[in-house]
Structures are given as C-alpha cells and as structure tokens.
Amino acid sequence: MLQPLDLGFTHLKNRVVMGSMHTGLEEEKNGFEKLAAFYRERAKGGVGLIVTGGISPNFRGRLTPNATQLSFSWQVGKHRIVTHAVHQAGSKICMQLLHAGRYAYHPFSVAPSKLKSPITPFTPRAMSARQVRKTIRDFGQSAYLAQRAGYDGVEIMGSEGYLINQFICSRTNQRTDEYGGDFVNRSRIAVDIVEEVRRRVGSDFIVIFRLSMLDLVEQGSSWDEVVLLAKRLEVAGVTLINTGIGWHEARIPTIATSVPRAAFTWVTAKLRKEVSVPLIATNRINMPAVIEQVLESGQADMVSMARPFLADPDFVNKAAAHNDDAINTCIGCNQACLDHTFKLQRATCLVNPRAAYETELNFIRAYTSKKLAVIGAGPAGMAFAVYAAQRGHQVTLFEARSEIGGQFNLAKNIPGKEEFRETLRYFRYQLEHLGVDLKLNTLATVQTLAAEQFDEVVLAAGVVPRALNFPGFDSEKVVGYQSLLRGEVTVGNRVAIIGAGGIGFDVAHFLAEQQSATLQPVKWYQRWGIDTLYAHRGGLLAEMTDEKPQKEIWLLQRKPGNPGKTLGKTTGWIHRMTLKRHGVKTISGVSYHHFDSEGLHIMVEDKAQVIPCDNVVICAGQESNLSLLPALAQLGIPVHIIGGAKLAAELDAKRAIRDAAELAMRV
Question: FAD/NAD(P)-binding domain: from which residue to which, for each copy (predicted)?
C-alpha cells in the first residue's frame, strides 16, 4: 500500500485513495475554510490521493437546490483554498464531478427518460439531445475550472445510479436517439464526457472514471457491457478507473457494517484482466491488512476508502508505522455520516466526532492539569477518558465489570456487528498509551472518590434496562437482553421479544442467526442474491437461496405501525429485510397481560392472543443509571453527566461519544 504509483505525467506517493464523501461543509457559510481543514488533516495523515464530495457541472445536476456546482470562473477561488491546503500537506486531490440525474432532490431534475426514482420525490424531465450535448460540454467546463482551481484531476461519477449510470442501463434509458437503444448508444455519453474533459484539460491531468462494475439492480449492465465500456473509456483517455458498486435504489447492502470486508474486490479483479489502465478497489476496506491482501493478490492497483478517513485521518501514517492498534477503525455504522447526509446534516463520525469539525472541536493542552474520575467505561466514559488525557488531565476510569465497552460489548456479539470489536481494541490501546488509570472490577464509591481527592467527577454509568411488572414476569424464562447477549442465559427455540427498537431488532438477529454471514462471504452473497460468476445482468442471481429459520421468533411492539421506523435512515431497511429472511414475525399495537406455561398472553386490537413461546426477552427500553448521583453531591466538587446516564431514551453511542468530546474540550 505504501508503494508509489507512476501515472506517467505524475505519480502518487502510495496506493491509498480517500474516496468521495459529501460532508455538507460545501454548502455552509465559510464551509470551504472548514473543508480545507478537513482535507488538510487527511493529507497530513499520509493518504496518496483525495477525491472530494460530488460537485455538479450545472444547475440541474445538483443533488439538492443549494448543492455546490462549479460552472463559472468566479467559483474557482473558494476551491483554491482546499487545493492549497492539501498540496501544502503533501497530497494530491481530485474533484468529483457528479450529475444527480433523477436522484436530484429538486423539481428541476433531468434524466435520460421521464422515469421517477423510487428514492426521490420528483419526476425528472427527459433530456433533449441538445441538453445531453450541453451537459457533456458542462462536464468539460467544470473539469477545466477544476484545473484552474489547482486540482490535480477530476473523478467523473459514472456509477451508483446517477445520471451517467442512468444513461448506461436500459432500466432508466428508454431513448430512441443516438443516446439510447443499444449499449454503444446508451454508453455514448460516458465516452463523450471523458473525451470532452480530456480535450479541455490536456494530457497532464488525472481523469478518474467511477465505473459501475456491479449495478445490483434489474436490467443492469451485463459483464460484457462493463468490459466493453471500460475498454472504450481507456481509449478515450482515462487515467484510472474506480470501482462503483450498486445503485442507491438497490435492495442489497454494499457498505453497511454487515457487509463482509472487501466483499466486492472480486469484481475489480475480474476487470483487471481486461484492461491495462490502473483500477481502484472499493467498499468495506477498513484496515491495513485488508488493503495489503487486496493489492498483494493482484485484485487492484489502488484501494479507495471513504468513511475510514472520517474515523481516523492518520490511517496511512499509523499503518506505515506498523501501529495498527492505534487506528480508529470505521465500523460501517453509517449513523453519523450517510444518515446525516441523507438528512441534509453535516456528516461526521460516530467513533470520531472531530470529523468535519476540525476547526471547532479540538483537544488543546489544558492550562491546569486536573485530577478527574470517570465512572463507567462504556462509549461515553471511554471516549471522555481518552480526550481528557490527550489534554493532559490525570484520569482514573472506574468500571464495575471486568472489561471496558459497556453496550459495545453487547453490540459486538450481534451477527454483522463484529466491527465493534475494533472500537474496543482502539480504546484499550488509547487508554494504555495515554496513561489512564483503568480500574476494572471496581465499583466507584463516594468513600473511594473522596479518599483520592479528585477535582471533578464524570458520571458515565450508562443505563439499566427498564423492568416490566406483569404476572409471570418473575419467571426464570423471562430474561433481559443484557443477560442473553452476555451469554449468561440461554433460551429455547420459540422466543417472544418485547420491544421492537434497535435493541429488539439486534436480539432477534442474534437469536435467528447462529453463525454470522458477515464472516462467511459465500453465504452472504447467496443471502442477498449476488451473482459472483456474473452470468446475469446487474450481477443478480436469478433465484435467491431460502434460509430455514433456526428459531420461531416474535418481535412485539406497543406502538401501532410497522416496527423499525426509528432505525437508521440508510441501514434500517437492511435490518428489516434480514429479520424477514429469517422468518421473524412482527406484531404491533400489543398490550401485555401475563406469562405462564402456555406462553405470553397479549392483546392486539382488543383481541386476546397467546404466543406459544418458551422464553420472553425484555427489550422494553432503559433508564439512566443515576444511582450514585445523590451520594456524589456529598463530595462538594463538580459532577458532570454524559452518555446514557444523561439521556436514556434511545441508546445512542454517537451522542454519547460526542457528549464526551464536548465535555473534554471544556473541562
């Protein structure tokens, strides 16, 4: 990964690309100054090449009405702030050119044909041939302006279901002119754009084309069409081809944490046999060992990672120092990055709240070193201890259990959430490296705290599960989710789960899937209908493999409506579909009556039912653990409350870690 790559007219210092991410800073006031700080840190962290978030070549191509475009000379100046910062830090940067097509969130959208996207509310207008040719020229003009702004190249976004991809596939292209019909015509716009860009910028400028190698939608490209287009793009003058996987409307996960690591590098390797232009592999590559395996095995020439550089801007430098334990690994949760982006909020990172807040959230050395006690080593407590220690404070971290992690120790046991182990490994390293006094198996008491004369106390004791008091719920067959996930209890083959929030979904998945498919890529491909032989269009299997349920599971919620509405915006559908595949039954609008030898007695729409279950698992919410708070008041020193102890309405590691960071910055 650290070997340079010679592109002829220039070279890249290593094989690592920071992939395109839209942070939302692009549209904020003074956002380009913040964006420059964001990219500067990643450039200083050692990455060889950065690709910006998508910039539209014209107004109609914007993702949202206020999204950024680069079409006029007066827009060049703000981009120079970014390119100068990256070059000063020793890296190269390309601007991504993205035309949203029918994925645009505004009424001015255009597309190859008048076909509405299933994920956007607006029906696009069909582009005239004149508009198509004007759009091609707009791509060239934007690339020329990017060159004037100091960018080292551009990436042309031809995948993920955006405009160019919409032209390429018959599912969205019903045209009968020179840009529709057979594949050569449908892909004409892609080749024409590359040729126009190359004409405008000359030969000594990086041109990356992000090619949809695996559409994962019906009527997607065939393998022969992918190869043909790649060869035509090579002739047209691309410098690099980046791998695009799946349309945004595809019903197959491509980057979520449940996707196996490097799950799609096989398709990049398949294309590498067909073209000589260097290829970039992408998706769910998040640790140096994975990168080395991909490159050493010849699957790709470079590797692109986006979210891992949100999690840790120093990823490459740490890998170069053979200090993998120090890497704050991306866990693929999407909670603070993509979920924010799709809600038009600034993207950041659950495990690194400084991401995209580099000018606002910093842990500078404290003028006075304080002696701080932190009670609870869950996400909030671990994060505060690390950030406070970075500022030079003396931190003692008390944890009643034998290991750090809190709720993360439960999450890591859920199939598809194995990446949470990496976060625990990172925090263990940081606590030791920073000299935090970690006291495991230790209950913090007022006497202990008083004896050590702490200056301030941080209460991060997390939550306790909410108890339900119904007849029969004192049975040993009624268990709490924490005991179940810790392996302290076992359950039978028929289980009713009370509570259909995030924890209820996790418990249902834990019970339904005995062996994680995330750790078995072949099984995972079969589950989601991915054709790794690429015999079918779009890389979809003609038939999906049925999975025989291991247990009979009922997921119950009090509220009416479909369960899972509060799950993550970009991942909730994955959890819902996974439980459906496992045959989990969901019931809404439930009132609970009692539990006995017949099972769980409930009421649904004023009708009595009995669920013939062997066990009941309680996932009915939680309450802040504030049991120590009255006694802490006796100490006469400041007490701060963060994480679940502060707000337990929904377990939220993103909020807990950010709470910790903001407190550590000012304490």
Answer: 371-640
Confidence of residue 651 (pLDDT cuts 50, 70, 90): low
Residue 529, Cβ density class (10 Å: 0-12 exposed, 13-18 middle, ≥19 buried) = middle
Distance of CA 211 to the CA centre of its chain: 21
Tokens 């990356």, located at residue? 208
- Among the listed residues 39, 103, 151, 162, the single catalytic one is 162
pLDDT digits over 306-315, tens only?
Answer: 999 999 999 9
Integer Cα distance of 318 and 266 in angstroms:
27
Is 357 among the catalytic positions?
A: no
DSSP annotation of 544 reads P
* Alpha carbons 394 and 437: distance in angstroms, whole number: 8
CATH 3.40.50.720 domain position(s) in the chain: 371-464+624-666
**CATH architecture, domain defined by 5-342:** Alpha-Beta Barrel (3.20)
CA distances to 2, 82, 146, 203 from 152, rounded to whole Å, are 20, 12, 8, 12
Task: Answer yes or no: are the C-beta atoms of 113 and 172 closer than 8 Å.
Answer: yes
SS3 letters for 74-105? HHHHHHHHHHHHHHHCCCEEEEEECCCHHHCC
Q: Please, where in the chain does CATH 3.20.20.70 lie? A: 5-342
Q: Partners of 241 in the beta sheet? A: 209, 279
Return residue ranges of the chain for CATH 3.50.50.60.
Answer: 469-514+550-620
pLDDT at residue 229 above 90?
A: yes
pLDDT tens string 97-131: 999 999 999 999 999 999 999 999 999 999 999 99
Share of the chain above pLDDT 70, in %: 100
Q: Could you tell me the strand order of the sheet in which 590-596 lies?
A: 590-596, 599-604, 607-611
CA 370 to each of CA 248, 393, 446: distance values in angstroms, whole numbers, following the listed order: 49, 5, 19
Q: CATH code for 469-514+550-620?
A: 3.50.50.60
The CATH number of the structural domain formed by 371-464+624-666 is 3.40.50.720
660's enclosing H/E stretch is: helix 653-666
Sorted by sequence, the CB contacts under 8 Å of residue 599 that are 6+ apart come out as: 494, 496, 610, 611, 612, 613
pTM score, whole prediction: 0.96
Give the angle subtended at the CA of 586 by the CAs of 620 and 496, to the nearest 5°. 55
Question: What span, in angstroms and rounded, lies between the C-alpha atoms of 665 and 247?
Answer: 40
DSSP 403-457: SS-TTHHHHTTSTT-TTHHHHHHHHHHHHHHTT-EEETT----HHHHHHHT-SEE
